[in-house]
Structure to design on (430 residues):
């Protein structure tokens, strides 16, 4: 089968192979969404008189059959088919004759791929949203479970002030609320209907774009047909930016876990089966999962920049360069799913050290507590600071963590605001 849009000439095989690249493989991920877009489009075509009711019924049944093949893993692109859109149209034409050729009326591959991508990205963001919420819930549960277990806080990699596992787990839970805002923003960018913009300049057919917007569940449409085409690259960049923000949070948490698992710290541990050993050192329990997760998240953070470089200096309208965005974004999405799953899985099997501060090296963790207590008794801050500093230098500093800690303000050791943070996540989610 030749390309459906052929004008009687064809590129050499070497040019075709180069320009198509990995698109045929990646397009399979869009197959379901291409069918969804086509079903909405033909229903609209029937409503404006470009299809008969009988033709609509035949094509709808045909598309449902193709959707079934996709869901069963039976759908493939023919060796000489360039993209998913061509394959679907070819199958309909092969099975139903001339009727199949009517499906493309009022469309271009440009708005067809745009709607496929937006439907796909919308679904991906919904899945990631649910995965983030699941991780958030796990972190909050751990925060409450271990809220009374103290943990040394560090600044500049130096022992600083008392923290707790409640604060640590809770911090990353709240950080995910910020990431959810980014995901929601990307979702709003994506959740706009471009169908009907054709090649970027609309169509002389009286297309009912409100109808396709409603049928496909978009919240609104890209009204201006040129603006619809301008969204190519912007949608991918918005999603990549949201993934990058989320990856930053996961990267920091993974780095913490790698450090806390180190025997020099010994703050947390995981079952042997979730760590790896050494080929020559029998005592090793390496944090391989967290190291790989940390590395993957570093790569994901590069996605917005890569997409920016690929979409810079292009005038409005479609350019073939946009095809390459799938090469970087689709694997990034897949990796993020894996990272979110593994982070939650590991946390479900974490054990915390409940006796960390018995180590004498954490003695000075509480100097600020003593300074503050003296200020509360009426001593000027600078005098209190100096007096405690002298006691430290002279080896006379003492503090009982069991009786002297009194953190009550919102977000502190004694007031984690777990419910307030949960409410933040509910408001941030979409």
């Amino acid at each position: 089968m030749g390309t459906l849009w052929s004008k009687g000439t064809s590129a050499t095989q070497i040019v075709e192979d180069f320009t198509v690249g990995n698109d045929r493989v990646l397009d399979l991920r869009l197959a379901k969404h291409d069918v969804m877009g086509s079903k909405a489009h033909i229903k609209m075509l029937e409503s404006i008189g470009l299809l008969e009711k009988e033709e609509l019924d035949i094509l709808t049944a045909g598309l449902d059959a193709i959707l079934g093949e996709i869901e069963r893993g039976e759908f493939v692109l023919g060796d000489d088919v360039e993209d998913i859109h061509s394959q679907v149209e070819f199958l309909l034409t092969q099975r139903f004759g001339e009727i199949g050729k009517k499906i493309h009326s009022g469309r271009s591959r440009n708005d067809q791929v745009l709607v496929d991508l937006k439907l796909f990205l919308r679904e991906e963001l919904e899945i990631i949203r649910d995965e983030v919420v699941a991780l958030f819930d796990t972190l909050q549960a751990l925060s409450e479970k271990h809220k009374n277990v103290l943990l040394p806080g560090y600044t500049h990699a130096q022992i600083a002030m008392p923290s707790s596992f409640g604060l640590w787990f809770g911090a990353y839970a709240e950080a995910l609320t910020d990431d959810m805002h980014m995901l929601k923003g990307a979702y709003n960018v994506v959740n706009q209907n471009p169908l009907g913009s054709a090649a970027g300049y609309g169509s002389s057919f009286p297309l009912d774009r409100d109808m396709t917007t409603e049928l496909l569940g978009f919240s609104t449409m890209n009204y201006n047909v040129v603006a619809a085409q301008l969204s190519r690259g912007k949608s991918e960049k918005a999603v990549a930016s949201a993934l990058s923000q989320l990856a930053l949070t996961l990267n920091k948490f993974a780095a913490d876990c790698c450090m806390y698992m180190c025997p020099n710290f010994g703050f947390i541990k995981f079952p042997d089966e979730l760590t790896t050993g050494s080929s020559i050192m029998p005592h090793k329990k390496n944090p391989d999962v967290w190291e790989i997760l940390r590395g993957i998240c570093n790569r994901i953070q590069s996605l917005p920049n890569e997409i920016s470089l690929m979409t810079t200096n292009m005038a409005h309208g479609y350019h073939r360069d946009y095809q390459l965005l799938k090469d970087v974004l689709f694997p990034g999405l897949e990796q993020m799913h894996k990272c979110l799953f593994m982070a939650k899985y590991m946390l479900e099997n974490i054990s915390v050290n409940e006796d960390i501060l018995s180590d004498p090296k954490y003695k000075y963790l509480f100097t600020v507590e003593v300074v503050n207590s003296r200020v509360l008794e009426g001593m000027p801050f600078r005098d209190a600071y100096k007096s405690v500093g002298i006691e430290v230098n002279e080896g006379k500093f003492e503090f009982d963590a069991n009786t002297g800690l009194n953190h009550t303000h919102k977000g502190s050791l004694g007031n984690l605001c777990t419910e307030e943070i949960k409410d933040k996540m509910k408001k941030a989610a979409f």
In short: The two ends are 44 Å apart (CA to CA).
